[in-house]
Specification:
4 helices, about 180 residues, alpha/beta, single chain, 60s Ribosomal Protein L30, Chain: A
């Protein structure tokens, strides 16, 4: 299994930890270690493209509003190693920061998105994205955030934050994004 960042390299955006080694803890109970043989669980939403474009435009507007609200709140993404859903120490720190904000804003509803880099099949990456989102959600629950305030969606490799074909870009795409849900 290839590991991004093992050589200590950094992308132009920031440092991304090498989290390719699977280890226990971090709220991963109930997750199978082989995402290729696991179907998406109930309660997980999948991103689907709308061929007409109208619903897609509305979703883009909602997504932009959610991203703006989350940025204003200072919520942080959590980044994952190649083919991994294990939360690194840096990821736990980011989620701890996010959990503190959520505890001080008890009426806010939060969406946890799971994202992957472009490598692998669409189906595989939807499952891996779900595992990443659920790992982040489970850790937030362990930190005291009420589970009924958190929803999970997997976008797999469908919504990259970077489109270059380079490891530094792949690292940015392997993420769990924490967004304040829009009231729309």
């Amino acid at each position: 299994m290839a590991k991004g960042g093992a050589d200590g390299s950094k992308s132009g955006v920031g440092s991304f930890p090498d989290t390719g080694v699977q280890s226990g803890g971090g709220g991963l109970r109930g997750l199978d270690k082989n995402p290729s043989e696991e179907r998406l669980g109930s309660g997980t939403m999948l991103a689907k493209e709308d061929p007409s474009g109208s619903a897609g435009r509305q979703m883009d507007e909602i997504s932009r509003a959610e991203q703006a609200a989350s940025a204003a709140a200072g919520l942080r993404d959590v980044f994952f190693g190649y083919d991994s859903w294990v939360i690194s120490e840096e990821g736990r720190q980011s989620l701890s920061h996010d959990a503190e904000w959520m505890k001080s804003n008890p009426n806010a509803l939060v969406k946890v998105e799971g994202h992957c880099d472009e490598r692998g099949t669409v189906a595989y990456n939807f499952v891996l994205g779900e595992k990443r989102a659920k790992a982040a959600r489970n850790y937030l629950v362990e930190l005291g955030v009420a589970a009924n305030r958190l929803s999970v969606v997997s976008y797999g490799k469908e919504r990259p934050s970077c489109n270059e074909h380079a490891e530094s870009c792949y690292q940015q795409n392997r993420r769990g994004r924490i967004l304040i849900k829009s009231g729309k």
